[in-house]
Amino acid sequence: MNNIQIKDLIKHQKINHSLDRPFYVNDKIFDLDIKNIFSKQWVFVGHTSRIPNIGDYFLFDIGNESMIIIRDKENIIHAHYNVCRHRGSHICLETEGNKKLLLCPYHAWSFNLDGTIKSARLMEEDFNKDEWSLHKCNLKVFEGLIFINLSENPCDFEEFIEPTRKYIEFHELGKAKIAFRKIYPTDGNWKLALDNFHECYHCQPSHPEYCSVHDPEYILSYGAGSGTGPASEKFNKILNEWNEKVKKLGHLTGEYAEKEFNKYSRSAERTPLKKGKFTETKKGKPIAKLMGKFKEYDRGYTSVGTSPFNSLLMCNDFATLFTFIPKSTLQTDVELIWLVHKDAKEGKDYDLSEMIWMWDETTKADKRIIEDNQKGVLSSKYMPGPLSQMEKGLEKFKSWYLKHLELALD
Ligand code: FES
Ligand SMILES: [Fe+2]
After folding, report:
1. From first to last of its 410 residues, what are the pLDDT tens digits of the chain?
2. Positive or negative torsion for Cα 253, 324, 285, 293
3. Are residues 25 and 377 in contact, defined by beta-carbon separation less than 8 angstroms?
4. Which of 6, 128, 231, 263 is deepest in the core (most CB within 10 A)?
5. 409 by DSSP, 3-state: which?
6. Cα 220 from Cα 318, distance rounded (Å)
7. Would the CB of 107 count as within 6 Å of ligand 1?
8. Is the Cβ atom of 106 under 6 angstroms away from ligand 1?
9. Which atom number of ligand 1 is nearest to the Cα of residue 104?
């Protein structure tokens, strides 16, 4: 498939239908997606508490790229390309660990934690070390979240984070720590994973756990602020009453949704959980220390999408963070991180199994749904079907994606 054929295909996508098969199965389109969609976003790839000590690092791999996310001697976090400046070998081979020095396993060139070169054996006399630092990837830390951007000319981070800033700051994720981290390798194209995440049409048949803590009217209007389902008068009434109570507490209320899903496709909102539920657990009772600026439990649920590749779903006492990582045309890693207050102790201040229950069960179910969906999309009989009223979010995501892919082909 060449660019002209792909452009033509983009033009023929039907509104309010899922995409044609090539978008979910074609390797050329996948490569374009990584280069033009993923690489242009600020994506958070971890939390600073994963690398608390000098020399701690983890790898983040995307497409052909591998990034070393590492804390240097000055406590500054860097993202270095995991590519030796000698003849290109990967330097770090383990997915995480601690390094005093970044030593290439091939011919033993060594690099400091900040990426500058330390030594290169037996090189010619005119070898200038200053020219051979590791390549840097754009990185920003905001409220403990480590964002990277693979673009040569990244968009302004402050502009990118501004609309969702107050929601993230209210939960003070910079004062949190990782309680648990899990990757759900999913045999499906990244767009099938995100299609699924942008609608709650499937929630009732597939997610009894999710439905047990979220109001059915919220589920109907899913993402009330970002309008990904039909408006629900009943839910608006519940929301307005809750807003009044929460305002009195001095807590944050409100919503933000990028109207056009233009550059980033961002959204943020605070909504109440189902009646009687305080947090996203089986019993719905508080299970951990209050986080952030909350004075008391307000039954609120903060849902933030900084870009399509990240979601932050935050209760008063813990937060569940999602990163969608396209691994290959038919494989996506869905990485979940659960954050709690940095001083909270497992078993004393929080119960881990209760905390992870809802999103662990829900993400396992989503993995299955997405994989079954991918199998069907690979069949000769797949054709895009019509979307329901509850899949407006999917249509928004789809048109955002098509627009950006088309622009990249110009
Ligand atoms: S490739 Fe790294 S030292 Fe040669
Ligand atoms: Fe789901």
Report:
1. 899 999 999 999 999 999 999 999 999 999 999 999 999 999 999 999 999 999 999 999 998 999 999 999 999 999 999 999 999 999 999 999 999 999 999 999 999 999 999 999 999 999 999 999 999 999 999 999 999 999 999 999 999 999 999 999 999 999 999 999 999 999 999 999 999 999 999 999 999 999 999 999 989 887 666 667 788 899 999 999 999 999 999 999 988 877 665 667 888 999 999 999 999 999 999 988 899 999 999 999 999 999 999 999 999 999 999 999 999 999 999 999 999 999 999 999 999 999 999 999 999 999 999 999 999 999 999 999 999 999 988 998 999 999 999 998 98
2. negative
3. yes
4. 6
5. helix
6. 24
7. yes
8. yes
9. 2
Q: Is residue 109 lining ligand 1, measured as CB closer than 6 Å?
A: yes
Could you tell me where the DSSP H helices lie in 147-280?
157-170, 190-197, 203-206, 208-213, 216-221, 233-249
Q: Top-level CATH class of 158-406?
A: alpha beta
Which ligand 1 atom lies nearest to the CA of residue 85?
2
pTM of the shown model: 0.96
Q: In a 10 Å sphere around its CB, with 0-12 CB exposed, 13-18 middle and 19+ buried, how is residue 73 labelled? A: exposed
Phi, psi of 204 (to 5 degrees): -60, -50
What is the residue type of 168? I
Structural domain boundaries in the chain: 43-141, 158-406
Q: Which atom of ligand 1 is nearest to the CA of 109?
A: 3
Cα 395 to ligand 2 centre (Å): 16
3-state secondary structure of 145: strand
Going from the C-alpha of 70 to that of each of 102, 113, 140, the distances in angstroms are 10, 7, 13
> How far apart, in whole angstroms, are the C-alpha atoms of residue 218 and residue 271?
8
Architecture of the domain made up of 43-141:
3-layer Sandwich (2.102)
303-317 as b/e: b if 16+ CB within 10 A: bbbbbbbbbbbbbbb
Closest-CA residue, ligand 1 atom 4, reads 107
